[in-house]
Structure formats: structure tokens, C-alpha cells
Amino acid sequence: MFKRNLWKLTLTLLISGWALSSMLPLQDTPFNDYIESEVTARQAEFTALMTQASERVGSGQSPTLFIALKEIGAEQRIDLSVYFPQVKLEQSLRNIERRNAILLDYLLQQSKGKLQLGLDLKGGVAFTLEVDEQPGQEVVAEAERQEKLDKAIEILGDRLNGLGVTEPVIRPVGDNRIEVQLPGVSTKDNPEVVDNVKKPARLDFRRVHPYLHAESASPDQVPPGYELMTLDGEDNTGQPYQTAYYVKRLPDMTGEGVAAAFPVMDEYGRFKIALRFTDEGSERFADVTGAIAEDNLNYQNMHQHQHVGQLAIVLDGKLYSAPTVRERINSTSAEITGSFSQREAIELANVLNNPLDLPLKIMEQSEVGPSLATDAVTSGIRASEIGVMLVAAFMILTYTVGGLFAVISLTVNVLIIMGMLASLGATISLPGVAGIVLTIGMAVDSNILIFERIREELNLGKSLQAAFLAGHEKVYSTILDANITTLIASSLMIAFGTGPVKGFGITLTIGVFSTVFCALVVTKLLLDLSITSGVMKKFPMLIRTKEPKIDFLKFALPSFIASWTIVLIGVGVIAYKGHTIYGIDFLGGDEVTLIYDQPVESAQVRAALEAADIGEVNPVYLSDLGGGRDTLKVQVPYEHGAMVEPALQSSFPNAGFEAVGNTTIGPSVGAEIQWNALMSLGLAIVGILIYVAFRFEIGFGVGAVVSTIHDILMTIGIFVLTDRQFSAPMVAAILLIAGYSINDTIVVFDRIREELKSNPETKLRDVINAAINRVFVRSLLTSMTTFLAALALYIFAGGVIQDIAFTFLVGVVTGTFSSIFIASPIFFYWHKGDRRHVEHHQDVKPTYEWTGSSRASE
What domains, with CATH codes, occur in the chain? Predict the structure, then answer.
């Protein structure tokens, strides 16, 4: 018995150990303490260096120890990597400043806790960027300005994703500003990330002067139309040097002509950069390189020796490279060759991949508090703890020892999910929490399916060992089918979704694999060891129920009509209310900036403004990094900004609130995120239809899709009927309902398929009724666990968490209802009540075999 389960035990311990180690450390370690603990060479020297750096910080010469060490290394030509020989840097990288920057960035990242909270839970850093229109610059038309602003937002999003910032908030403010909020980022602890964000660069290709050299030039010798620019580099020994060039002020070509750029390695192991142009970019590049090639020829004819011109790559006013041009390049692609290290090639490719034809400047930068107030986060955590305890108590009270095993399995499940998220460097935000909640519900469902099957087999008179083996065997396909359909949906969210949709999909995908593992390995291991060893002689259950005998199809038509009537009413209300069903995240609104003498808790600010009938309110405290006064920014619906200051002064007369600004803000959930969410949902429904039709039968697929659409529309309708507004996390909440609906429907369908096989002579109507009756208690129990968790969130949490919990509550009820009264009847009517239509699919046909008995030869 032990040998049979040894591999399961070993695998469970290894995975749990890996998950736990991936989550450590749980909290950030102060950078000062961490870097001292990591020194493994020349301890005394580094201690003196730390003292020097601390003195610089104390005197105000450097803002942080991180910056101080970087500055000291550059000034004194100290390679900090000698103190950390265990950190392996690229051998070809010899420039001291770059080596120190890479080393310090790595150590800073390692000092962080593995699981970081998102902007909504922890806060981060915020920037406001403004279009920099210089005097004399051509006035840009409103439509063109908006198009460029949208392009800037798109490029900033790509750049932030490339920097590893999870779920940043990027939205327009007014008609010429962009607000950027980075979750979990601090300007003190993450200066490199912040510096990259502060430079939304404009990419230019500019010609270098074909004849004049700038090695010994002075500012008064610059030719008209050119400017003096320097290129930083390093020689073969790693020593830095600078090369001066006369570069045209106006670009010959912009970065809009570059479709893509990427580093590649040639057959000799040297790095180069490959460029692919757009159609317009290809034509323009041919013209520019052709003009340089013509200058080369003219110079050669005049001076009787060869000359090679150069085309400079300038990003945000900084010269990054000046490759030579020998001939006209008329192609859709080009290459930049040279003595690039791998990191240099990657950096230059990143430059070429971030064109931005819109100069921006930093107007504001500040530390931003969490969008959920401290009390909201605390209440959310408390509500989650209560929900988990309720689920655990329900499982143990219902299944006693089996329930305890389920709780242990659930603990391992959550541990695996958190460990995987930590190893991926994910940031935990509300959409991610929604994915974890769904996973917990699915995990509990899987255990209930196992236990109820065992109870069913015991009722047939089987021994505990036989019931355990038979129950697991019969529930195996049900668990796999339910989780595979969820996996289809989550995979499409990852492939086509962005922002919160993609984050939700990643969490849900991890949860699918961890749920299957824990249900079919961990729970089975615990039951097998206890039953086979004789420790568990019975399968006690405190709550015993009898299988009902209800003609569910008899109530199908009235139930169908009643539920779709509610759906139509909800859709009608949505159409009537129009855009008013959306909150600030979707529509934007007014943002009022206030100064104050005494801060007031965010929850109190929100309550006071909501009491003044202002509508949705999002208060956020910001600390000005430029040394100015701290401010409170309050986001409210359009044309409600003027009501904020009087309401706060009336409610908090001693706080000294004074409005110093009121502007409009754009939506944080842009059209792209909305479209990708809809596309992901649509493709998920199609994918589920195909899978269920292939795995079961087309009638099952149609029933699953219709019931899923019903549940989504029903949930949205009830949400709107209760006068609630959609916020960004609700995108993930709706996707959650789709996943839960499919999961519950598959359980019913799997039992119908089983009953069709085992009862070849029974009418289709009786088969469906029998199947639903046999899973009815099971469906109620699985729904009850998720309902309890959501109910705790709804009662004890507040704000957006409460809205998500309300969505869960509605979704659980509609999902259970639709699997019985929508999905199953549609399957029945699809086949016109005739099982012969169903049996055209081989998977549900009964199997008939000739059997005979042997007899002794005469």
C-alpha cells in the first residue's frame, strides 16, 4: 500500500516544498540590510563603502543608498561586482557603470518579497505626462492630437509590460495629458523602472554631416541645421569613451516606419540588430540611404578617397548609435552590424521598438496610495478568512474525516497557486484574487464530487475500499471535463486578453492544473492511505440526504420562460440606462485635486461623498515627490467635480479641504481591453462548444453554450437592476461567472452521458431526470461552498470587493439553476426527446457484447 502511494507522497511533498520556497521571502527586506547580507568578498572594503554611501544619503547629496552606491562606483571607478562574486554578469560587459547598474538592479529585485500587491491593494507611483508643444510648433488638429495621444498610451503600455510592471493604469487626462500609475513601484526603491517610464521616447533617424567631423568641435562651430551630439561607448578593455557627431536637428525618418526590431546572432557568434519596415518606412528608408550613398560617391569623386556616411539613431534627444551606410537599401528589412554585446543589442532593439512621435514631459510625479482604503483591504482580508473558515467548517461538518482531507488538499492547492504566481513575478490584484476564489470553489467542488460518488457506491452495498476505488474511477472523467472546459476559456484569456483579463486568465490556468493535481493525487492519496491502513473503517457523514424523485423536465418550460423573462428585463434596463451602467473605470469622469490640513480616512471620504448623492467615488492620497504638499485626488462621474469640495468641507470642517484643481480623466479600461475581453469570452464560448460537442455530443455543446450565455446575461441584468455600476474588476468577475457556469453544467452532462450508457432501454426523458436527481444534492453542496465564501465577502467586505462578491452570489445561483433547467432541457429538445438522435454519437451509445461460458471438453 505504501509503495503504491510512495510516488504520490514524494511528488506532493516536492511540489509543496517548491511552492513554499518560491513564496519566500514573504515580505520586502530593506535594501540596506539585504545588500550587506549578500556580500561574500572583501567585507571590510564594502563596509567602508557603505559608510561612505550612508553619509552621502544623510547629507542629502544622494536621495537613496541605491543611488549613492551607483554614484560612488561611477566617480571612483569601483566595480561593485567584486563584492558579489556569486552574481554572474555577462563577461563581455566591461563598462563599470553598466555592470554596477545591472548588479544593483538585480540585488534590489532580490530584496523584494516574492508576492507583490497591485496598485488597488498596495499603491505605487504615479506620473502625469503632458504634450510638449514648443513655441512656433505647428498646431496639431484635434483629431490628430487624439490619435497621437492614443498611440502614446499604447506604446507606454508596451514599454511598461516590457519592464515587468503588472497591470499598470494608463489613461488620458484632459486633452493633452497622460496619467500613469505603476502598482507596487517606489521611486526610492525602483529608480531604474521609474526613469524608463519618465522617458516616453520619440525615435528619429537623422543624417550625420557627410563631410565635417566633430572630434574637436566647439558649440560655436556647429553647422546650420545640425547639432552636436555625443555617443557613449566602451573600448575592448571596457573603458568608456565618447564620440562627437554633427547630427541634423530635423529627422529624415521617424520611428513610425519601423514595424519591428530584434537582436540576432550571426554564424560567428556576433550580435546584430534586424529591422523590418512598414511599406511607407521601406520607401522612406530607401530614399534616405540613397541620398547618403550619393553623398559618399560625390565625396569620393572630389577627394579621390573613399568616404562612408552615417545615419544616426536618436531616441528622445539622445544619440544611441550611428551606423554607417555604404549603399542605397531598398528592402523591407535591414541590419545594423557592429561590435555589440548581447545586452547592447537588446537595448538598441528595444529603442527601435518604442517609437513615439509625440514629445512628452513630466508634469507631476507622486507616490499613490492604494485605491482601496486601508479599512477596505483589512475588511476584505477578514472577509476572506471568514469565508475560508466557513467553507472548511462546512466540509468537515458534512464529511468529517473526508472533509478534513479536503481542507488539507485545498491548502496544498492554494500553496501551489501562490507559489506559481510568485515564481512568475506576478502582482496580486483584485482580478487575481477573483481567479483564486474561483479555483478554491472548483477545488472544493472536485472533492465533493469524489465524496458523493463514494457515498453513492456505499449505498449500493460495496465495501469502503471498493466504493473508494469505484467512486474515483467514475468521477475521473467528470473532473477532467469540467476543468478542461475552464482551461479553454482561461487559455483564450491569456492569448487574446490584456490587463486584468490576461491576469485573471493566468491565475485561472494555474488553478486548473493545481485543482486536478490536488483532487486526483492529494485527496486520493490521503483517502487511500487511511482506508488501506485500516485507520478509516467507515466514511462518516454528519449530513445525510436522500436522492430526490423530481420530474425536472416537467418544470423546464415554465422555468425557461421565467428566467429568460428576467434576462430580457435586465437587457432592456441596460439598453435604457446606456452608458450610465459603467463606472469611472469605463467612462472616465472628473478628478478633483484637494489640499488639506488633516487627512481623513479614504472610507470616510467615500461615505461622505456618496451620501451627498455624487455617485461613484474613488479617493486616492498622493505624496508629492517634488517636495510640494500632499494631495487628495477624488475621481467622480462627469460634471460632479464641483460638488466635491463643499461636501467635504461640510462633513469634515476641521480637515481644511481646499480644491486646487479639477480636470477630466479618461477611462482606465480602454476600448482595447473591453474588446479583448469580449473577444476572449466569445472565443471561449466557441471553444467550449467544439470541445463539448467532440467529447460528448453536439446537443450537449449547444446546451452548455446557451446556459453560459444565459448566466452571463442574467448576472449582468440583476447587477444593473440593483443599481450598481461596472468597474474594472467586474470584467474579471463576469469571466468568473462563465467559468463557474460551465463547470457546473459539465457535472450534470457527464452524469447524463453515464446514465445513457448504463440504461440502454430507458427513455431519454427518464434518463435526464434520473441523472439530474442523482447529482442534485451534489450540485447544491458544491454551490453551497462557493456561496458561503462569496456571502462572507459580501457581508464583511466593502467597496469593489462587495460588488464582486454580489456577482459571485448571483452567478452561483444562476449557474446551478441553468445547469438543471436550461442546459439539460435544451439538450433534450435538441434531440426532440428521442435518444436515438443522441446515440448517433459513439460516445454515448451503449455497448453490447456476446459472452459465453466455457465447459469442459467431453
Answer: 29-110 (no CATH), 123-189 (3.30.70.3220), 204-357 (3.30.1360), 374-543+561-576+672-844 (no CATH), 589-665 (3.30.70.260)
